[in-house]
Design brief:
37% helix
Length: 170
Amino acid sequence: MAALIVPVTPPLRRQFHVSAALSSPPRRNSPAVDWVKETASFSEQDSRPIMLFDGVCNLCNGGVKIVRDNDRRRNIRFEALQSESGKKLLQRSGRAPDDISSVVLVEKDSYFRSYIKSEAVLKIMEYIDLPFPQLALFLQFVPLFVRDFVYDNIADNRYNIFGRSDSCDI
């Protein structure tokens, strides 16, 4: 009886290279800017987090009003994404200065940290009065991709559903 010998080859390993860009590439003629220096003054005297929002979006302005009404200790500052300060903070966060696709929360502890989309909303809820921190704790159990899917669908249609104003109300 003859034995059949089959050579064993090692399994092929696939290598995946992941790359991501958070903002558009720099313009060729624009000088390099140190966004750390440009935004350092935002937290020198006031270390409260800054909520960046779309200043002409009625939904976003309504969200800011809800946060202000439920933030008795005034834990959060507000800045429109379209303002010069908002654009600088966006760039400090690694985003394009004209990116108004998401609310952004910028915190300053020992360094700047930014939250976007549903994570920003949940983090903002942690700063304001009851029952929002408890609701944020509950919503953290919903997977991020589900939360961001819902967030993106609302954000993409916010002008059609809620309208827009000519200027920032805040």
